[in-house]
Write a structure and sequence with these properties.
The complex is a heterodimer of chains A (317) and B (280).
Chain A: E1 8-11, H1 12-26, E2 30-34, H2 44-49, E3 54-56, H3 61-71, E4 77-83, H4 84-87, H5 92-101, E5 107-111, H6 129-134, E6 140-142, H7 147-156, E7 164-167, E8 172-175, E9 189-192, E10 197-201, H8 204-218, E11 223-227, E12 230-232, H9 236-246, E13 249-256, H10 261-272, E14 277-282, H11 292-298, H12 303-315
Parallel strand pairs in A: 2-3, 2-4, 4-5, 5-7, 6-7, 10-11, 10-13, 13-14
Antiparallel strand pairs in A: 1-8, 6-12, 9-11
Helix pairs in contact in A: 1-7, 3-5, 8-12
Chain B: H1 3-24, H2 29-34, H3 36-46, E1 63-66, H4 72-82, H5 123-136, E2 143-148, H6 155-166, E3 172-178, E4 181-182, E5 185-186, H7 187-191, H8 196-202, E6 206-211, H9 215-228, E7 235-240, H10 263-271
Helix pairs in contact in B: 1-3, 1-4, 1-10, 3-4, 3-9, 5-6
Classes of the chains: A alpha/beta (317), B alpha/beta (280).
């Protein structure tokens, strides 16, 4: 029987807000910039705690990214906050030149990623951001799975020298990472140990994968579940050690299949351990307005999609 | 520094520029020549900086960002002539593995450069960030930028302009290289900039104007700009220049924006520019 203790229910963006507040108190070099979404990003606590270190830039994301890059001159550690869409696609060239190529210690923190932004619809539901960010040299890409892990990652990236993309979201989801867990960039967490299939997931899809593993257990399928919170650099050893045992993989993410976590895993498999893989992700489509959980079902990134992918990939072994 | 000395340095900088671009048959001589006087005065007379010990963090040092990164030859020459790196290295410009990339970059750790530029419109935002960081650090040194006039067509410039006045970024002196030319022709024909002084004033900036080829005027205008810092407003200097200044056949046209002189043309140019510090 799969035992995962649920510690509560919260949104991952609130984990970012709490992590940032802790940094307000513990690291005087951390500054925060926001493009008119302070409440949505849960940055208000930081703003209240250290108003001199909070920079409201207005609806001007390009200027925000450039300012953040400039603030690193003199030793500041800037955290930028806006929706994932405006954190990446809108400012790709600014990130590319002033942050990634210039190798600046900027933390690009992106909320409301993916379909689970919900009712605002496709203009805001970015599903390409992991791909864009992981293609940039020097960039570290992190997608934590729940409130506690987002808080831990927010704090951990302050100690990492270099550009980071931290992606989180809006919906309230179960918390299952212990509040005293140690977050290590580039070191995957094995949530479940199993022998028939490896599920590699990130973000909200980790919880969906836990749900899937329970269903699969009843069908007699033993799941090994890896929470791949760092997309880049990918924990290659975690992938290879697990597939040596299970001989097949399902990847699951709230992102396009093109360019996401699954593609990163596929690169590893095709070079080092040729085993079958199935993708759970959005298949070359924009989203739409709707209830976040219903959208996940409609666009094929729900619990049942993971179950189906596992049953299919096992057949391909 | 005496004006006569600055003129000599600027002449050598111009020689460096035409030799650098001619050697690799690429690069941007026009705007580089046009900004040679300004950057010479900035680095040899105006800025507080330490060429012998370059520090990325620039604590208690002035910072300069070249936002129009394509005029890298003039910046590289001025940096080398200031002592940031050996002048012989100018000969590696745009060649494989060189620290002197076509557009300025930090990834090969060339002393003097703190931010990549080339994709236009980003330098003012970076400068504002550094200026704000200096305030947080209690560091009273200043941040300078240079922008092309064509570059002002980028929207990010105006995002940054709005921010700087709204948040009283008054430790910042931006300069616009107003040569009226861009790759496709005169700025008036490509996309007119309108009345730039009024635009910057409307965005809440202190606006100064100067002749970018009159060394005394550059010195006095920069001194005046410095004296105006700390008064709650960012400062912009609209600098009138001639693209290609110093080489007669390059002046008065946009055609030498991004074209290098051949060997014969180089010799004609060098005959017009006195060698004052020794060619690299």
């Amino acid at each position: 029987m799969i035992e995962i203790e649920v510690l509560g229910n919260k949104d991952t963006r609130s984990g970012f807000g709490e992590g940032l507040l802790e940094l307000a108190k513990t690291n005087k070099d951390v500054v925060a910039l926001c493009a008119d979404l302070t409440g949505s990003l849960k940055m208000d606590a930081f703003q209240k705690e250290v108003p001199d270190r909070f920079f409201q830039v207005g609806i001007a994301e390009a200027n925000m990214i450039g300012m953040a890059a400039g603030m690193t001159i003199g030793g500041k550690i800037p955290y930028t906050g806006t929706f994932a869409n405006f954190s990446t696609g809108r400012v790709y060239d600014q990130i590319r030149q002033s942050v990634a190529y210039s190798k600046k210690n900027v933390k690009i923190c992106a909320s409301h990623a993916g379909l689970t932004l919900g009712e605002d619809g496709a203009t805001h539901q970015i599903l390409e951001d992991i791909g864009m960010m992981k293609m940039l040299p020097n960039m570290t890409v992190i997608v934590p799975c729940d409130f506690n892990q987002t808080k831990q990652a927010t704090i951990a990236i302050s100690k990492h020298e270099g550009p980071v993309y931290l992606r989180f979201g809006r919906p309230v989801m179960p918390i299952f990472v212990k509040d005293d867990a140690k977050f290590e960039i580039g070191k995957a967490d094995t949530i479940l140990e199993g022998s028939d299939v490896t599920i590699i997931a990130c973000g909200h899809l980790v919880w969906k994968s836990i749900e899937a593993a329970r269903i699969l257990e009843e069908k007699g399928v033993s799941v090994e579940l890896i929470n791949m919170h760092t997309i880049k650099p990918l924990d290659v050893n975690a992938v290879l050690q697990s597939v040596a045992k299970t001989k097949c993989v399902v990847t699951a993410e709230e992102h396009m299949i093109n360019g996401g976590l699954g593609d990163s895993v596929a690169q590893v498999l095709i070079q080092h351990a040729l085993v079958p893989q199935e993708y759970v992700g959005v298949n070359d489509s924009f989203g739409e307005s709707g209830n976040p959980m219903e959208l996940m079902t409609k666009y094929g990134i729900d619990t049942q999609n993971i179950v189906d992918a596992v049953l299919k990939v096992i057949q391909r072994k | 520094m005496e004006t006569s000395e600055l003129k000599k340095i600027a002449s050598q900088v111009r020689r460096d520029i035409v030799r650098m671009v001619s050697a690799v048959n690429s690069g941007h001589p026009g705007g580089s020549l046009g900004c040679a006087d300004f950057l010479t005065v900035l680095y040899f007379d105006c800025m507080k900086h330490n060429a012998a010990h370059f520090s990325m963090d620039a604590i208690n040092e002035d910072v300069f960002y070249l936002s129009n990164g394509h005029i890298s030859p003039v910046w590289y020459s001025v940096l080398a002539r200031s002592g940031y790196f050996p002048v012989a290295e100018l000969g590696t410009f745009r060649k494989m593995s060189s620290r002197l990339q076509g557009h300025p970059s930090t990834d090969k750790h060339l002393p003097g450069i703190r931010m990549a530029s080339g994709s236009l419109g980003q330098g003012l935002s970076c400068a504002i960030g550094t200026a704000q960081a200096k305030k947080l650090n209690g560091d009273s040194s200043l941040v300078y930028t240079l922008h092309g006039d064509g570059e002002l067509q980028e929207g990010q410039i105006w995002e940054a302009a709005m921010y700087a006045s709204a948040y009283k970024v008054d430790n910042l002196i931006a300069t616009i290289d107003l040569n009226g030319r861009q790759i496709d022709g005169d700025t008036d024909q490509v996309l007119s900039l309108g009345n730039l002084a009024l635009k910057w004033q409307a965005f809440g900036w202190e606006v100064l104007e100067m002749d970018g080829h009159n060394i005394d005027e550059i010195k006095s205008t920069l001194a005046k700009a410095k004296s105006m810092t700390g008064n709650g407003k960012p400062i912009v200097i609209i600098m009138k220049t001639e693209m290609g200044q110093g080489v007669d056949y390059m002046m008065g046209s946009h055609k030498w924006h991004g074209v290098a002189p051949n060997a014969e043309q180089l010799q004609v140019a060098l005959n017009q520019l006195e060698e004052t510090m020794g060619d690299y």
